[in-house]
User: Fold these one by one.
Assistant:
Number 1:
Amino acid sequence: MKQKTTLSFFLLCLGLLNFSNKTLAQATLNNTLQGQSSHKIGLALNLGTTPGIELAYAFNPKIAARLGYSYFKYDVNTTTTTSGEDVKLGGKINLSMATVALEYHPFTKSSFKLIGGASYFDKGQVSMVVSPTGSYTFGSTTFSPDQMGNVQFTVDYSTQYAPFAGIGFGRTVPTKRVGFGIEIGTYYTQSPAVTLTGEKRLSSMSEQQAKVQENLKDWQYWPVVNLRLAIRLD
């Protein structure tokens, strides 16, 4: 009887010890997850094809919502060679858009993520003016660059909504105070509006606008490659 009581007590102790270990392990896991999910707000800076800033809110360690704004403006003023002739390129690139997105981390121990969202392109325009730099001779007549004129070319994605999908590494709400990451993806846009006009001796280029518009109808993908600096705010 005493041996049975001792054995029962021993088995009870083993059961309690096993239960305590499981409870402690679960509590540790819960505390870890709570510690990860307690960091709710982050700020990220993008440097790449859509430079800008994003504010993020983490619902849990796997899902975060992002609200961002991108702005880029660059003036072009250079000389290049085309068809053996030097021409001057002048113009600008304008980008301005607001973005709403979700990032999803499928693996708990990895910063790999899937991103999906949409943006409103307030501006998305490339505008160029092509001007000859030297004189041209047709038959017995020579024309100066001013007499030749120029060609104005514009590709415009402005005032449209576009969905976005991509992948990346790095959390917008990092577990540490500062984190780094990279994202690669693409927008699916409407076909750009094309404007092509020529002046003076190059006025016949205006007749090519419809053809160029047709050739660019499949330009519906806006690539995105960004390096990111993320800062946890809370």
Note: The chain has two domains: 1-38, 39-232.
Number 2:
Amino acid sequence: MELNITTLAERPELEGPMWRMLDLWPEFMLHDPIGWANIGRVVGELPEYVLVATDPEGTVVARAFSVPFQLGAEGRGELPATGWDQMLLWAFSDKRHGRIPDTVSAIEVTVAREALGRGVSARMLAAMRDNAERLGFTQLVAPVRPNGKHLEAGTPMSEYAFRTREADGLPTDPWLRVHVRAGGAVESVAPVSMTIAAALDDWRKWTGLPFDTDGPVEVEGALVPVHCDVSRGYAVYVEPNVWVRHRL
């Protein structure tokens, strides 16, 4: 598939079409409060870290967000257990305090429904790596959401993330495999990468499930079960991701 990949800084007119692109994110994933508060800031304040792909007709078919942050800041140094959420918090805290970033973190690679299965995600990842290197960085890290994990919600991520194929030693998960083929190394699990807590009525609206029994509830698209507490009227989803490090 022929693509034209540019930064949003180069083509700001693509912001609206980029947001209107139809994708397959589960509804509940759009309600992480840290994401709600900060994802728009990536677009508004860091457009040089936002990539947009268009097809030959000029239609937006993919987007990729990343953020710069200072991994070497005091009290950091290690990739955090709080993964995706923490990347957004660190990035904008560093920006506010004038810290010089030393690392870029991937935040999202999303492909339009009509472009799935055509190798677009791998090309967006490669473009993200190239963009980070162009901006002067030597490493890109990614709190990866393995795209096959939702089929095994009951399997611990610590087991799933490190499975490899006998034939070539690559990860069994397709998205992790794309990262490793691009030069990344699977490093660790971020067990608390994203937390979504909401009233049971919200979960019922998002999923169509009754949420009327205490305990784990398997939700379509969720990587682990959602914990339901009927007596207290809420449910909580704590998503684990997998840290992958790319040396540039």
Note: The mean pLDDT is 97.
